[in-house]
Amino acid sequence: MEYNNLSKLVKKVLKTDQSGNTTMPSRREMTSKIFAFIMLIPGITSIVMTVTSEGGESIFFAISASFFLSISILLFGRKSRLEFNGTEKQLNLKTALWGYFQKSKIVVPFDTLSFELSSIGAQGPYQIKFVDQLYEFKQYTDAKMFISFLYTKYNTTAVETISDWPNKTPIRFAQSELYNSPQVTHDSQKANSNSHLEDEDFNSEDLVFIEIWDRKSLIKLSLPFFVFTAIAGLVKYGVL
């Protein structure tokens, strides 16, 4: 399957670099972006409080603003992308900070790399798991197109647990799926009942989700915001 035949949604996830290798954002990069946006909230709040406060309070909020915004800027510049290197036949993790401190490490060779396709419900959404990554597509066609492209280009393995859950069944791709753009032929309910996983209609505007953390991690993430908000309130009313 050629890259130009991929749907717009899949192209938003899969990118090709100058060397012809395929890259995609890792869980670590998406986590950094989320942290960066969250740090903007107390940072902007501190700027507002710096302008409206006086004396020691203004200095405290100025320091807080510098702290949060500095972290946000660093996190926005943090890159952590997965690279499918066709020459070395391996999956690499490439990291950098605003174009500097570039590093690359081997994650897994292609001969041991496997994609697993599963469905959360009877009609999706559909999850793709490989190494420590988890991508979620709303439509089955996008999920299978994602796997088909990487399977064809890098000679990896692919299994699914939809037709005979929880057993893993090798995915069989039709010739049209491997070398051409997949045709819309079947609805998702029929696709889930067949072992060969036939395509269904898809909407290229659907979102793709990358699992980053669980609920417990999200609670831990929100704690600093509430702590600093409480400290700001204590300072504001003269308690500290």
Automatic annotation (TrEMBL):
Keyword terms of this UniProt record: Membrane, Transmembrane, Transmembrane helix
Segments crossing the lipid bilayer: 34-52, 58-77, 221-239
Q: Could you tell me what this protein is called? A: Uncharacterized protein
